[in-house]
Amino acid sequence: MSAPTLTPVEPAPRTTLRRWSPVAVGVLVWWSLYHLNLPFWNWVMFDTVGLTAGSRLGDSIHFFFYDITKIALLLTGVIYLVTILRSFMSVERTRALLGGRRQGLGNVAAAGLGVVTPFCSCSAVPVFIGFVAAGVPLGVTLSFLIASPMINEVAIVLLFGLFGWKITALYIGFGLLIATVAGIVLGKLNLERWVEPFVFETKLRGKVVDPSLGLSWDDRLQMAREEVVAILRKVWPYLLVGIGIGAAIHGWAPQDWFARHATGWWGVPLAVVIGVPLYSNAAGVLPLVEALHDKGLPMGTVLAFMMSVVALSMPEMVLLRRVLKPKLIATYVGVVASGILLTGFLFNAVL
Description:
Blueprint: H1 13-48, H2 56-86, H3 91-98, H4 103-115, H5 124-133, H6 138-150, H7 153-163, H8 165-188, E1 203-204, E2 207-208, H9 217-248, H10 255-261, H11 267-275, H12 282-294, H13 299-311, H14 314-321, H15 326-350
Antiparallel strand pairs: 1-2
């Protein structure tokens, strides 16, 4: 008598429905909240509370609540998705696939990805955290973090409309160069030791696990939920402080003083020093860039100012502090600021 043949047991339809229904509802709720975020806070702040749109106070308070909600939603969605993807592959295996001789190509790809993701510097941080947690080499993720706020379709369209295709092409080329080269340089410094250890840990029900050992879908979904809660608990104070700083300085820049004092060779470093503490996206800073250029400031100076505002900001550094140690943040700022300085001087020399 032959032994009975064992066949895989298919999950019952009711079990499958019970597993995936909450996920589908969660995706729908997340998508709705993300797209209703801006009109909701417009209604609350300007129509209900009565703040004046366009005023320093009104825009700052609106910015705080809108950006807090947006970045919390991005953290939730990105960390959930990346944790599920990470559950199929260990951190070490991901590093092996994307590191080594492929790292330069990875930097170029990450910078290119940044071009098609219209994030400001703080909004790019959740994606950066997800990439690092998934084991993507640190230098590659930093290329994305630099390129995403600096070069995106919003910046490209507005630059083209204000200054023409030559300036736009030069800006895109140098922005990609800064993101790629800075990422390669930072990657070769082997700075992973300055990343907080919890970022690399994969936990399930409070215990560190190896994803490569094989997990059920219930385990993967549970792991993703736990990871979202754990990271939000760790970063929320930094999120509040970082966005609070951004709201306080939102829309502020010493325009007239800057236009008077940034006319010599020192204009480029002065532009970077003033730009780094500020916080805005490309759409927000470009009208100021146009005004400064109309006042006679050289193109390299105003573009260095724009790059420093959108690629490096104090709120971004505060958010990054929860996952990166101060030495890595300082190194990152130094390398990127050096690239921006060089770009500003070159633009002034050739334009």
